[in-house]
Amino acid sequence: MARAVGDLLAEFDAELEDEVSIPPSWNVAPTDAVPIVLERLVDDSAAPRQVRQLRVARWGLVPSWAKDPGIGSRMINARSESVLEKPAFRKAVQSRRCAVPADGYYEWKQGPGKSKQPYYVHPGGDRGLAFAGLYEWWKDPSVPEGEPGRWLLSTSILTADTPPPGAESTIFGKLTELHDRVPLPMDKSTMEAWLDPQADDAAALVDLVRSGVKDAAADWRVESVGKDVGNVRNNGPELIRPVEALF
């Protein structure tokens, strides 16, 4: 995720409630700070209005009932098949849905023996991604009321089974070779519905996102990249530079 704040605000037609800093990262790891886009109802006039905001959240959802934020490192993804029932996600999917902007993501392919080859999955052209996500607020009991850090905003990305390859595209065959799960992307119209804070049929929205994955991912590309991406200390645009695959 290497796009600037101003570019994200323009792309998603969002605004800021507070100034945020989102350093570019080519190697986002669990618990890192990531941008999210959400909509909320603001009742500051005669009639409530919907406001779309860009915020910064910790990647790995921390449920409101968690004793500490450590659980978030295991909640970076939410399985769309069970998100309506899982205690960690079922409240968020009803009323705290978001979009998680990204330029692409990495996946690893198992080779002979212990060898692995990393791949960079991304849209064609300069277009970015918007994954379907959830967000949650967690109150840190160790921080006094009103102090910075009292509330932690965190997020998780919805996933689904990788669609089977079809005659219309070969991208899903390539994705299936890498992993049996895929993060769920959204086109603009799906994102509009997903973010709507007044929409109350969460099951229908999850179905909408799941049904749109083939169209939203039709132009994705899969490119082999260097193994330096396997170390989170490495972070730079060279990580997404295509290299010849090892196998």
From TrEMBL:
Cross-referenced InterPro entries: SRAP, SRAP-like
Gene3D superfamilies noted in UniProt: SOS response associated peptidase-like
Enzyme class: hydrolase
SUPFAM superfamilies named in the record: BB1717-like
GO molecular function: lyase activity; peptidase activity; single-stranded DNA binding
Its EC number(s): 3.4.-.-
Keywords: Covalent protein-DNA linkage, DNA damage, DNA-binding, Hydrolase, Lyase, Protease
GO BP field: protein-DNA covalent cross-linking repair; proteolysis
Ranges in a coiled coil: none
Pfam families tied to this protein: SRAP
PANTHER family: ABASIC SITE PROCESSING PROTEIN HMCES, DC12-RELATED
UniProt similarity note: Belongs to the SOS response-associated peptidase family.
Protein name per the record: Abasic site processing protein
